[in-house]
Amino acid sequence: MKKASDCFALVVEDSGFARKVVEDMIKSFGFQTLSVEGGKQALEVISKQVPDLILLDIMMSGVDGIDVIKSLKTKKLKLR
Q1: What is the distance of C-alpha 49 from the center of its chain?
Q2: 6/52 Cα distance (integer angstroms)
């Protein structure tokens, strides 16, 4: 089992305040984190490095959380 400090979490949230709160909370557990404000950016990050944990807002403008999930299913990325 990985230690939290060896894990990468991606926070996807269009609200800047909520994104910061969630990212700070995840960091407090020792995770390495990256946060983005939309689904398009999330898919770009995931295509380069598959996170151990994704905290995904479902209701966002543009590419929303459901679109991200559908894209991940279609691409059949090797998720952990």
Answers
A1: 11
A2: 9
Please give the distance of CA 27 from its chain centroid, rounded to a whole number: 13
Beta bridge partners of 10: 34, 54
- Is residue 80's pLDDT more than 60? no
Domain range for 8 is 4-75
Instruction: Please name every residue paired with 54 in a beta bridge, in sequence order, or none if there are none.
Output: 10
3-class secondary structure per residue, 25-40: HHHHCCCEEEEECCHH
Q: In this structure, what CATH number is given to the domain that contains residue 70?
A: 3.40.50.2300
Instruction: List, in order, residues 6 or more apart from 3 with CB less than 8 Å away.
Output: 30
Mean pLDDT of the chain: 92
Among candidate residues 25, 20, 35, the one with its CA nearest the CA of residue 4: 25
Report field, pTM of the whole predicted structure over 0.85: yes
